[in-house]
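User: Here's a structure from my thesis project, written as structure tokens. My advisor, Dr. K., wants to see whether a designed sequence matches the one we expressed. Can you design one independently, without my sequence as a hint?
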């Protein structure tokens, strides 16, 4: 199979690193229409729907209607990243404090609509256009990267710089499938005298999530016993039908495990989006 030439490899690699798919060497990364999706795990996947936005008005409406999913940063200060020689900037939860949490998971326009494109401004809120050719934005990591020799200082742009941008703040897939409560258990012994009409009722007080428990019963020889019917009466009580094995000889053991439901698990939604690394910008928005 023929190899791609060096220019094409460079184009594909560069655009891929920016979260953009390469369709031709003749397009700049910001002119490409498709995003690139890497391998992901559950922490990289949006578990809530992000409505598309063709323009800033739609994006702002989506923020209003989905305040726990989308956040808008308006003219938010960017801070120079330590040891970046003026080439790297990011947003932090506490502007001016690069030891605070860096803000990430901004919405890539190629995936969610160009209404979510970010805008870069100087300290006087003058737009710094993409056509300056001096910077690119990593949407997932929230890092604004300037070329060497084209830093704000080199270009004469007053700082702090500001961005207006949209970021995902909803649940990821991991939150939708990982129990919020812990795995809890309860063990007790019982004899034939504890049964009523072949039924063993156990109050375990485990506050079982969705009233679902796993039950294991062992006889006096430590052999596991198959039980025809085990019913969860509620989050704290189960009932096991042992009618097929009565009378019980000696002392038996019942072990109950479940997921504690002190904190509810967020429901997964039918549509999911990925948080792929991407560097896109647009200077056409106000």
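Assistant: Designed independently from the structure alone:
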């Amino acid at each position: 199979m023929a190899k791609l030439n060096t220019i094409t490899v460079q184009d594909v690699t560069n655009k891929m690193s920016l979260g953009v798919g390469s369709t031709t060497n003749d397009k700049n990364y910001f002119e490409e229409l498709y995003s690139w999706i890497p391998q992901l795990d559950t922490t990289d996947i949006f578990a809530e729907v992000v409505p598309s936005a063709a323009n800033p008005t739609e994006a702002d409406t989506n923020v209003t209607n989905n305040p726990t999913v989308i956040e808008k940063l308006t003219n938010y200060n960017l801070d120079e990243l330590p040891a970046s020689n003026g080439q790297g900037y990011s947003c932090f939860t506490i502007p001016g404090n690069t030891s605070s949490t860096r803000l990430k998971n901004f919405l890539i326009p190629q995936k969610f609509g160009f209404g979510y494109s970010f805008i870069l401004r100087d300290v006087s809120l003058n737009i710094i256009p993409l056509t300056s050719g001096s910077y690119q934005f990593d949407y997932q990591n929230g890092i604004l990267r300037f070329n060497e020799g084209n830093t704000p200082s080199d270009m004469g742009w007053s700082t702090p710089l500001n961005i207006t941008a949209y970021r995902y703040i909803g649940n990821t897939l991991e939150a939708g499938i990982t129990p919020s409560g812990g795995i809890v258990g309860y063990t007790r012994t019982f004899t034939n005298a504890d049964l009523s009409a072949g039924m063993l009722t156990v109050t375990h007080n485990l506050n079982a999530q969705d009233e679902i428990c796993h039950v294991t019963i062992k006889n006096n020889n430590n052999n596991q016993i198959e039980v025809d019917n085990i019913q969860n009466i509620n989050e704290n009580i189960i009932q096991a039908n042992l009618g097929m094995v009565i009378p019980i000889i000696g002392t038996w053991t019942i072990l109950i495990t479940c997921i504690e439901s002190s904190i509810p698990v967020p429901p997964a939604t039918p549509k999911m989006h990925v948080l792929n690394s991407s560097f896109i910008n647009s200077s056409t928005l106000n």
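When you compare it with your expressed construct, this may help: Residues 262-286 have pLDDT under 50 and may be disordered.
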